[in-house]
Write a structure and sequence with these properties.
The complex is a heterodimer.
Chain A (H helix, E strand, L loop, with lengths): L1 H21 L15 H26 L3 H32 L8 H33 L10 H28 L1
Helix pairs in contact in A: 1-4, 1-5, 2-3, 2-5, 3-4, 4-5
Chain B lengths: L21 H5 L4 H30 L9 H35 L8 H19 L1 H4 L12 H8 L27 H29 L12 H33 L12 H35 L6 H15 L14 H29 L8 H24 L1 H7 L3 H31 L5 H28 L15 H31 L37 H6 E3 L5 E3 L3 H13 L13 H17 L4 H23 L23
Antiparallel strand pairs in B: 1-2
Helix pairs in contact in B: 2-3, 2-4, 2-16, 3-7, 3-9, 3-14, 4-7, 4-19, 7-8, 7-19, 8-9, 8-10, 9-10, 9-12, 9-14, 10-11, 11-12, 12-14, 12-15, 14-15, 15-16, 19-20
Chain lengths: ~180, ~675
């Protein structure tokens, strides 16, 4: 799993570099950095970060054999992830309708949607995995630490997705807006 | 079959338990069966790629060739490259890795057997997907260009003209939506994406296997060089594939969803594609050559009856090549828009690659030096590898000189260079491995006479094909051009090249005959046909299903050799008196395990999961219609569903070492 994530770092590394190349392009019409809604994105970033906390709590509950706690926190993590995704959908919708910026507007916009879109897809896969774990936990009467490292691996993946978002939020949104 | 442990029957997810016949191949998780399937599939694509090359050569045999139309020619040389690189050399290397890696480190299987199966099936369906373009592809004239319509019309009706035609590196914006409409490039891009997923899964699997599954005493610096090269290649794959994945996604989005990454009109930059592509593409070159180097490093010591000269140096040189390989990509772009400083820097870094490569060459020569050489077929191919690779390597160094490269770029000189390293290098090395490990696979020997005939025909044919390309290139014959005028006087050498190409084909036919014949009628090999050095030869041939009846304990580099040989006073190898008894004993114990051996159970889910992905890819290409959208959903459902099934599948009751099959399955969903 660590190896897979190391590969993923290069995947996002390439995407972020791509945005940095194009992001400040003054090319026609809309420039992504001028239309970010920083307060809104800050809130959704906070939600995503909190989901890392609930993930840790789920892991902790499992280590104390608290099956109920594990399930609750898993569900909470999935919920927070979904809220983040909802926020992203709303943000995309705003950009497209209110500002007229779509994937095909210019290269900067293309790279913005590509980067955040792929991150969103990763979050969505993460949510699917969390829900699967939740389902397995119900069905098999509980997860265990010994039987596979499922929860730990999903946790690793989830934290990775969060860390990448911190980088994206800093580089794309915050530094872009100054 | 000795895997007799009982399985729980209470669950609806029963695991398949066939051990022979069709279904056993479909559901297998055995690294040997997967390796064999990889090998045969790759060889079929070798034949296809070879036939494409022959058609190219017929067209170029004389001036103003009329055998192919221009679109057909474009499609054939592009598809030839994609096929040979991604569908032959990479998977046949994967075949060797799959088959040999566990044997060489004394393991029963790889760390994640089901992931291994999923990787193979994704490769298989990805390859079929890539070639299925022949049913959907159609040559369409670039926007605003009417002049070539005459040719396009002719090719419109031909299957060949519908193959991907942007060169194997799919340069943008030529391979973008405006200049290459139609679906051919879509298939190439998404096909490569699928093959990349397969390689990525393999890479993770092999790295974990090497680090966790070694037998007792098999320290890292006691591993055979081939295992080391597998490890290095796996890391190369791990770090270079995500980059090409991004580039291919960007290209696909440009083509299918109208993004503007490479369209200058929207602020995009075509050179970015070149950077991303070669940042993957150059490590890819080492992904192709390093496994062959590993094979040669196994074969030379055996037939020289000497230890490998400078074992550690060869291992670290392999790592060094891989590391430097990430710092030289722009030497493919000296004639693109990069600054003089960048040109100088990349020229220098390219020259430094010659150092670790030179270390390897000298160590191979040092291995042979003073040895008692036995010129069996595998040895001949390995020596051929070293000789041809030196020629290819040296012409490669000439490209690192920027002004020289400007003269050579896009001429046949480049074609000559990379065929000397990839055919004279990689493919000679791979054939050496095929002859060397054939007994391991079948328990029989390849016919020596036919093998040597194959070698000499192929060596002569190879040089007749690719050596004249050097001078053709220096005379100014350009690549990727479907005809040349009689006034250029390129004709005679081109005819020689074409004759050479057919000579190679003859050699390959002899090999195919030899393989089929020896598989049935070859002399039985016994346990140790080559007087080998490494531990994969301490078990019976063909390899038993459980590999090692008991897990071996390794006491040093070349463990098997030291079982058989000692030294006399002058340091010369002296065969022990009881060597034959040791071998007979190994043969008996290897096929009579003292206790039941537990093996990972087969599974349906790898093939199911792999089936979902090409459906998604079809869906993306045809996303404008309803069937396309439906396909995406269907493919995603199949993939996610089989991943869930995979996760719920009963574990083995008493998992063998590395109970890992289940650890990574959800991560696979990323693809």
């Amino acid at each position: 799993m660590w190896l897979f994530l190391s590969s993923e770092f290069l995947f996002f590394g390439a995407l972020i570099t791509n945005y940095l190349v194009y992001g400040n392009d003054p090319f026609p019409s809309v420039v992504p950095r001028e239309i970010y809604d920083i307060p809104f994105t800050s809130v959704s970033s906070f939600v995503l970060l909190m989901s890392s906390l609930t993930m840790v709590l789920a892991h902790h509950s499992l280590s104390t054999k608290d099956q109920n706690g594990t399930r609750t926190w898993l569900l909470a993590t999935a919920m927070l992830g979904s809220i983040f995704l909802g926020g992203q959908v709303f943000e995309f919708y705003e950009f497209i309708t209110a500002h007229g910026m779509t994937m095909t507007t210019n290269a900067a916009a293309s790279s913005f949607f590509m980067l955040t879109g792929f991150h969103g897809a990763h979050v969505a896969i993460g949510v699917t995995m969390l829900l699967s774990l939740f389902g397995m936990a119900k069905r098999q009467g509980g997860l265990s630490e010994e039987h596979g490292l499922n929860l730990e691996l999903v946790g690793l993946y989830w934290h990775f997705v969060d860390i990448i978002w911190i980088v994206i939020f800093t580089l794309v949104y915050l530094l872009g807006a100054v | 079959m000795t895997a007799t442990a009982e399985r729980p029957t209470t669950t609806i997810f029963r695991r398949p338990d066939t051990t022979s016949g069709f279904w056993s191949w479909i559901t297998t998780v055995d690294h040997k069966k997967i390796g064999i399937m990889y090998g045969y599939a790759a060889f079929i694509f070798f034949i296809i790629g070879g036939m494409e090359a022959l058609m190219i050569r017929i067209q170029l045999a004389g001036p103003n060739g009329t055998f192919l139309t221009a679109p057909e020619y474009n499609a054939l040389f592009s598809t030839h490259g994609i096929t040979m690189i991604f569908l032959f050399v990479m998977p046949v290397s994967a075949a060797f890795m799959n088959y040999l890696l566990p044997l060489m480190i004394g393991a029963r299987d790889v760390a994640f057997p089901r992931m291994n199966a999923v990787s193979w099936w994704i490769f298989f369906f990805g390859a079929l997907f890539t070639y299925s373009v022949i049913f959907f592809g159609k040559v369409v004239a670039p926007l605003g260009v009417e002049g070539v319509a005459g040719n396009v019309d002719a090719a419109d009706r031909s299957l060949l003209g519908g193959l991907p035609d942007g060169g194997w590196f799919l340069y943008q914006p030529n391979a973008g939506p405006n200049f290459t409409p139609g679906h051919a490039i879509d298939f190439a891009m998404l096909g490569l994406q699928l093959l990349g997923i397969a390689s990525l899964i393999s890479a993770v699997n092999f790295i974990v296997t090497v680090f966790n599954m070694r037998a007792k005493g098999m320290r890292l610096l006691r591993m055979p060089v081939f295992v080391w090269m597998t490890l290095v290649v796996a890391f190369l794959l791990l770090f270079s594939l995500p980059i090409i994945a991004v580039a291919l996604f960007m290209g696909t989005f440009d083509r299918s969803f109208g993004t503007l990454f490479f369209e200058a009109a929207g602020g995009g930059d075509p050179v970015l594609w070149q950077h991303l592509f070669w940042l993957f593409g150059h490590p890819e070159v080492y992904i192709l050559i390093l496994p062959a180097m590993g094979i040669v490093s196994e074969v030379l010591p055996v037939f020289s009856r000497k230890p490998l000269f400078g074992y550690a140096a060869i291992v670290f040189a392999g790592g060094g090549i891989a590391f430097l390989g990430f710092g030289v990509w722009a030497h493919h772009m000296f004639s693109s828009a990069i600054t003089p400083v960048a040109q100088a820097a990349f020229g220098l870094s390219t020259m430094t690659i010659a150092i670790p490569t030179g270390i390897k060459i000298f160590n191979w020569i040092g291995t042979m030096w003073g040895g008692r050489l036995r010129f069996k077929t595998p040895m001949l191919f390995s020596i051929g590898f070293v000789a041809m690779f030196v020629i290819g390597g040296l012409s490669g160094v000439t490209h690192s000189v920027v002004p020289s490269d400007w003269q050579q770029t896009d001429t046949y000189y480049i074609v000559a260079h990379f065929h000397y390293v990839l055919f004279g290098g990689a493919i000679f090395g791979l054939f050496s491995g095929l002859y060397y490990w054939f007994p391991k696979l079948t328990g029989r020997m390849m016919n020596e006479g036919l093998g040597k005939t194959h070698f000499w025909i192929q060596l002569i044919g190879f040089n007749l094909t690719f050596a004249p390309m050097h001078w053709l290139g220096l005379q100014g014959m350009v690549r990727r051009t479907w005809r040349y005028a009689p006034e250029t006087h390129f004709g005679p050498w081109n005819l020689a090249v074409t004759i050479g190409a057919f000579t190679i084909a003859l050699g390959i036919l002899i090999f195919m005959f030899n393989w089929t014949y020896s598989k049935r009628r070859g002399a039985p090999s016994g346990l140790d046909p080559w007087d080998a050095r490494t531990i994969e030869w301490t078990i019976p041939n063909p390899t038993p299903e459980y590999n090692y009846a008991e897990v071996p304990t390794v006491t040093g580099l070349d463990h098997f050799w030291h079982l058989k040989y000692t030294q006399d006073d002058e340091g010369r190898a002296l065969r022990r008196d009881d060597a034959d008894e040791i071998i007979a004993d190994l043969d008996y114990r290897g096929s009579h395990p003292s206790s039941p051996v537990h093996l990972p159970s087969p599974s349906y889910f790898p093939i199911l999961m792999a089936m979902g992905l090409p459906l998604i890819a079809y869906g993306i290409i045809f996303h404008r219609g309803l069937p396309g959208k439906a396909l995406i959903v269907l493919g995603a459902l199949i993939t996610i569903g089989s991943l869930l099934g995979w996760g719920m599948e009963p574990l083995d009751p008493d998992p063998p070492a590395g109970d890992g099959g289940d650890q990574m399955e959800l991560a696979g969903a990323h693809g």
